[in-house]
Write a structure and sequence with these properties.
This protein is mainly α and 115 residues long. The chain has helices spanning 37-52, 64-89, 94-112. Helix 2 (64-89) runs antiparallel to helix 3 (94-112). The protein starts with 36 loop residues before the first helix and ends with a helix.
């Protein structure tokens, strides 16, 4: 008798507040949304502030500092992509392109976490 195991591919989940990777969920209960009680509390405070301000629940509120940081990170991402496009057009070596692609991936991964 042959025993086969089926592994379910589990998507990596991140904290809804800080973006830190969450540990794998158990088999029971609701999935975790936050990595710690402090992140859960900050999210609650943000939701409460949004509701008091009369904004829709799905509104994203950023301070001017957070917005400037996001714009800087988006600019870095665009520059990294332009560098790769230029290197391809100039006939760069595969090792160089691979290195540049890893840098682009690192920039994009950092950008995924808004906080």
């Amino acid at each position: 008798m042959e025993v086969t195991s089926t592994r379910r591919r589990v998507a990596t989940r991140h904290c809804a507040w800080c973006g830190q990777r969450l540990p794998a969920d158990g088999q029971f209960g609701r999935r975790r949304q936050y990595c710690a009680q402090t992140c859960r509390q900050r999210a609650y405070e943000r939701r409460s502030a949004v509701q008091r301000g009369g904004l829709p629940e799905d509104a994203v509120v950023l301070s001017s500092t957070e917005l400037a940081n996001l714009q800087d990170r988006l600019f870095q991402l665009r520059c990294a992509a332009e560098d790769i496009a230029t290197a391809v057009a100039d006939g760069a070596e595969p090792d160089e392109l691979h290195s540049m692609a890893r840098a682009l991936l690192g920039t994009a991964t950092g950008l995924e976490r808004l906080r």
